Amino acid sequence: MRGATGTAMTSHPLPQAARGDWLTLDGVWEVELPAGTTPRLIRVPGRLMIDASGWSQLEDTDLVDVHDHGAELTRHRGVRDDLPLWFGELGGLSMGSGEFAHRHVDDLAAGYRRIVEQVPMEAAGFVWTQLTDVAGEQNGLPTDDRRFKCDPAAIRAANEAFLGR
User: What pTM was estimated for this model as a whole?
Assistant: First the structure.
């Protein structure tokens, strides 16, 4: 963790999660509840909780979870002063002909670096979408059969620069 966020998070569950716990996160596109009911989360002591990843985030959460495939990620700074900022989804770059991509690029490593450089320093972390290509989304770093689309050393260098800020 870096800067003020790291200091503020020393008693937060996120450092435990960062040490190797699996986090299960998914977006919720639409929630329909019977009239008069309220969404309720079941909290597990000592575990990080995100109420609804990204698009329809509610209030009962341990992180501000943002989904943003744009190029101005710093606009999410200060959304909430009481919770860490987390990018549960960013990226969405495609070099191929996949129909589902947020942006097409010629140089995937350079596109990756440009997006990662936009992640605010106080962010607790991010998830790249997609890690690998899947059936309908051709926006992974490697193809669905795990062939790299760019030099993995360039991705590593971008990650190391992010961690070293």
Answer: 0.71
